[in-house]
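Key result, reporting period 2: structure in, sequence out.
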């Protein structure tokens, strides 16, 4: 069983205690700050509404953002695979070439996901 830790987040002006796995504290602090930022943006856009409605609208907005990011990642993967396929038609790659292409695709995916996280944290 992993060790637990407790952090305090300020979200929508309220202090909230969150239990998490040890080592996840910094990540959750960033996530909490991002959530608070997006809640404030939503509140500015829709005005003064009940907190539960504010949280639901903000969650829907975040899910929409995440869905859009996943769509972009899938499109980029597809373009890369198509690019690799057309290159394969021109010259049959060796096993090493295939492995190199797979690693490039994985690295590109990791970079896109890191950029998405940085975008979310800004």
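The corresponding designed sequence is given below.
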């Amino acid at each position: 069983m992993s060790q637990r830790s407790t952090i305090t987040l300020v979200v929508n002006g309220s202090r909230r205690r969150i239990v998490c796995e040890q080592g996840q504290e910094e990540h959750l602090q960033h996530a909490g700050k991002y959530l608070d930022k997006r809640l404030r943006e939503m509140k500015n856009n829709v005005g003064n509404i009940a907190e539960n409605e504010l949280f639901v609208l903000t969650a829907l907005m975040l899910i929409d953002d995440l869905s859009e990011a996943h769509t972009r990642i899938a499109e980029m993967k597809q373009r890369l695979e198509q690019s690799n396929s057309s290159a394969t038609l021109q010259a049959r790659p060796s096993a090493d070439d295939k492995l190199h292409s797979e690693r490039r695709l994985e690295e590109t995916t990791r970079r896109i996901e890191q950029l998405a996280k940085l975008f979310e944290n800004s």
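The longest helix spans residues 51-90. The chain is about 75% helix and 15% strand. This case is discussed further under Risks and Mitigation.
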